[in-house]
Amino acid sequence: MKKYFHADEWSIIEEGLHPEDNRIYESAMSLGNGHMGMRGNFEESYSGDSHQGTYIAGVYYPDKTRVGWWKNGYPEYFAKVLNATNFIGIDIMIDDEKIDLAKTKIKYFKRVVNMKKGYLERIFTIIDDKYGELIVNAKRFLSIVDTEVAAISYSITPVNHDVKISFIPYLDGNISNEDSNYSEKFWTEVDRAINEYKGNLTMKTKKLDFHVSTSMKYSVLEDNNSINGTIDIIDQEKFVGNKITLTGKKGRTVTLNKYIAVTTNRDYDKSEIIKISNERVTYAYNKGFEELFIEHVDAWDKRWEASDIVIEGDTEAQQGIRFNIFHLNQTYTGDDPRLNIGPKGFTGEKYGGSTYWDTEAYCLPFYLSTANEDISKNLLIYRYNHLEKAKENAKKLGLNGALYPMVTMNGEECHNEWEITFEEIHRNAAISYAIYNFVRYTGDSNYLAEYGFEVLVEISRFWTSRVNYNSYKDKYMILGVTGPNEYDNNVNNNWYTNTMASWNLEYTLEVIAYLKKEHMLRYTELENKLNLTEDELSKWQDIINKMYYPYIESINVFEQQDGYMDKEQILVKDLPKADLPLNQNWSWDRILRSCFIKQADVLQGLYFLNDMYDLETKKRNFDFYEPRTVHESSLSPCVYSIIASEIGYEDKAYELYLRTARLDLDNYNNDTEDGLHITSMAGTWMSIVHGFGGMRIKDNTLCLNPFIPKAWDEFSFKILFRGNLLKVKVSSEKVFIKLEKGDYLSILLYDKKYTICDELIIDIN
Ligand code: BGC
């Protein structure tokens, strides 16, 4: 396998410039702070292959749908996360010649993301026959303290001679999305202002009226003292900049510090955003690069304190997991319930940056365990706030209750492939499951009375209208669906969907019983608001009692869907290597007819409803389905790895873990160039904490069942659980648990109860 990055515990390092793989490095070197993010592009011009990308959270575009054959019910648009004003731009001219790393001769090049401190740095040496060597150092970060602020420090040191240097700091709004359906430009200019040392560019979207105001201000220093140069103003449509020209003296370092502030009308009235972005940039400028940076690093220290996983004895595994945690923390900070987690976060455009079931099924556990309750609660409230839209969506398809979209920005469905949009209805259950998971983890049952119950009822109503009663078999069935395994469409009775639908109805009934007992007044209020009747509840119970589940009797395994066993049964190991990945080598028709499974389907159910199935059942299903699974969704190996850990298949668990942990760093699926798999990164975290750590919550108790993969000497992780911060360290001999915050906590370790006040050390053997 080709190695792209040096193994390092805290850094992602590119040594030497790799023009042919530049997009891969750009994706992996992305930075974000929850409010905005960008790919690891260069500040100066680059004429080689590159995908320049800057994204602002929550700013999207409803790009007109493009399909071959329009079907009733399709959404009018596919939401695109918007590539916005490029604010990192600093062109460099040496002796009036533009630096372009695709053409300029360089002697050394290093691009590094420091994950501990949250910055990107490039160091390279330009060489030229005329003026000799110039050392360049460019460092930038997006503040996680002042999330509207970014700062860049760009330094040049002439080694051999004095040279004429021009810096051209600019803001460029002439930007388009690579994935635009009709090659349309989405932005128009609202306002621009440019002066010496500062400028502003305010753009708005052609639809939805998002306004984004970007301000810049900069200073120029020679060996840390202010220095003046001659300044030319650049003022063009959608583009503002300065050209500052000075003499770079031999052996002295000239530095341009560029400060940026980005505000949007999502947060302020649009009449205010220019003023506020100018104020924010002045504030950043007055603070200065170093002070902003120190605050930023302190805040990163705190984030790592709560969420780090330390692996001893395997640098690549350490780098892999930190890379995942770093990006999860960069993508979602949880302070705005209108935001969510796109599969590619701020690192690319594919998948539109929109919300998928990935959030509830994969991301929620990470935020539950590593951040305060409010953060994960906001992920749930996001869906609560979209309830009316989900009801409209169900109605549009002729169904009752709420059908949450497969892909959304604002609650409206914006995915347009019928087998996914109309059929992949299992996503609804993930939303109910997230409510259950949140309440079970945090113990905050009030959430049910406040918000959760309404969502549960409307989703239950959806299932009630979507099942059909087969009077011949006296069973309820769910026909015409796509399960999580997207390599099978329009199937009947997908085991996972039927199981989750029935579980969903059962949980809603349980919540009713709880509300009646603990929140009677609120329950009566909700009962009236939702027009709940006894008949309706009896219907739910009837569906629970008579749900149909396909089963393979001969081997005692849940059948993925009706007819799965009619397919020719071949194992992945017997396929020619050249056929994989199937989605790049086989026709869609062939994939659909085959028994090969894209991602955890039955196994997803065994993971979610873990307590309902014994180890033998899990083992039988794992043994049957894993050899048939091609893991062509990044979301797949982590779930299999967790179950493998649980059933004692330690080597297999580790092998599957490796597939998820370095997926992007090793470009495993050959698609890192499109952006990173942010949501599957949460799955990687789960495969350590839920898999190797064996963490579960049972009856309000935290349970751990850890083992250490053979390749590691020791690993440790942190979890926040109901106000307690716990550090769990595992080696082949001992489990060490420290209560870092909280008075005491009772846990189950290897099924035995312990109450921890300070530390607990247990010998494994
Ligand atoms: C997976 C879906 C997932 C989507 C976004 C697809 O490849 O099959 O389950 O929601 O990617 O990550």
Q: Would you give an account of this structure?
A:
The protein is of the alpha+beta class. Among the domains are: 11-66 and 74-305, Distorted Sandwich (Beta-galactosidase, Chain A, domain 5), CATH 2.70.98.40; 696-765, Maltose phosphorylase, domain 3, CATH 2.60.420.10. It contains 20 helices and 32 strands. Strands 1, 8, 9, 10, 11, 13, 14, 15, 16 and 19 form a ten-stranded antiparallel sheet that branches. Strands 7-6-12-18-17 form a five-stranded antiparallel sheet, with no helix packed on it. A five-stranded antiparallel sheet has the order 20-27-28-29-32. Strand 14 and strand 15 form a beta hairpin. Helix 6 (373-384) packs parallel to helix 10 (446-466). It is globular, with a radius of gyration of 27 Å. The two termini are 37 Å apart. The mean pLDDT is 96. Residues 343, 351, 356-358, 484, 486, 598-599, 633, 635, 679 line the site of beta-D-glucopyranose.
Looking at this protein, list some descriptive labels:
globular; alpha+beta; five-stranded antiparallel beta sheet; ten-stranded antiparallel beta sheet; Maltose phosphorylase, domain 3; Beta-galactosidase, Chain A, domain 5; 20 helices; 765 residues; binds beta-D-glucopyranose
The number of helices is: 20
Bound molecules: beta-D-glucopyranose
Radius of gyration: 27 Å
CATH hierarchy: architecture of one domain: Distorted Sandwich
Unreliable stretches: none
Q: Average pLDDT, to the nearest integer?
A: 96
Inertia-based shape: globular
**Beta-strand segment tally:** 32
Strand content: 25-35%
CATH class of one domain: Mainly Beta
Helix content: 25-40%
Q: Looking at this structure, what is the CATH superfamily of one domain?
A: Glycoside hydrolase, family 65, N-terminal domain
Question: Given the helix and strand composition, which structural class is it?
Answer: alpha+beta
Query: Under CATH, the topology of one domain is which?
Result: Beta-galactosidase, Chain A, domain 5
